[in-house]
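Recap from last week: sequence in, structure out.
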Amino acid sequence: MIHRILLITITIMCLTGCTMAPRYTRPEAPIPKEWPEGVAYKEIKPEEAPFATALKWRDFITDERLQKVIEMALKNNRDFKIAALNVDKARAYYRIQRAELLPALDVVGTEIRERVPADLSSKNRTGVMEQYSVDLGVLSWEIDFFGRIRSLKDEALEAYLATEEAHRSAQIMLIDATASAYLTYAADRENLKLSEDTLKAQRDSYALIKRRYDVGLASELDLRRAQTQVEAARESVSRYTQVVAQDENALNLLAGTRVPEELLPEGLDSVTPPKDVSPGLSSEVLLKRPDIMASEHMLKSINAFIGAARAAFFPRVSLTTTIGTASAELSRLFRSGQNTWSFSPQITMPIFDARIWAGYEAAKVEREIALANYEKTIQTAFKEVADTLAVRGTVDEQLSAQRALVEATSVTYRLANERYIKGIDSYLSVLDAQRSLFTAQQGLITVHLSRLVNQVKLYAVLGGGYE
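Predicted structure tokens:
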């Protein structure tokens, strides 16, 4: 009974004991409190758009076909599955480490056969000694007086929480990557359509010049110039055919399976734009980003490990205690009077062990590394948001200017073509106008894509997209 009370008391002391880990204080974020301001940035009032973290991804992504593709990715993407399995693994390791705080109850059955020489035998003759025993008890349980095991448990907990936040971050990145790949596919489909239309127009122009050349109204130089435009357009069609196929392959990889044809967009105009989001008034919103929270959990994990390294300087107390039965004959093993018990505490006091000092110094260095990684993660996140805000503040003006450029070059091409047909100008002016129009139209597609992708990117870098 006394042993049982002692065991219960020690258990309560261990479960309620403190650790020797340093007191954790969240470091100051090494970034400005406010978002950057200037000509490149457009003010976004919180009442004009919801916060990214307050908007579910299905509410942010309004295109129904894209929603289905993202659902496929969340279900089938192998990298995302690995991230989820890593969470399960980290949770299991945490449970293992937490179980070290409690004694393990084991049953041990033993059979011993030993030849005893005559000079060691109480009967002064050689013989074979037999012994059978069955014991139930705690085998070498470390009593956590100084919090070493509790610190290791806290370390495992923070590592598990970091892995869980990494899983959240993986979901956000997967949504971002899938939506961006979908929009890129749409843009390249539009580029392919533009190239095909341009090729048709160039062939019609070549046929016209060929007829003029046959009757002596056009020079061979004009004919060859027209032919170069046809070949350049053919190359463009072939190149964008390849790019569209590769875009589809990339989208299939992200989705984890083949995306059905009916879910693929014809062009950017066929995709419903995502909603606008607000970054808020303060950059402190970044501290809730999953990758930053994961980095902070890793910092806390190293902080807890320092507690275990400190506790290693102090004595370790372990306990072995059993109750059971023993007999020299197997048939008498469970008879009355064969009961046994043992109570064996052990104290180990480190006197000189250079490994303990080296381990403690290594733990402190690891904490400085974790702190630097945490601060770098915050700074990287701030840059990502600042970059997307800079695009957001300027892309509408770029889009407006590019549309005006397309309209102007389209008129220029029409006028140059009319002047050539009337014999007022050379075909070189038509070629220049054609190239300028094609380049301007491609630029318009690029800017349009940049605007849509930036909307998705802003939502992701502000921590939106996890459910």
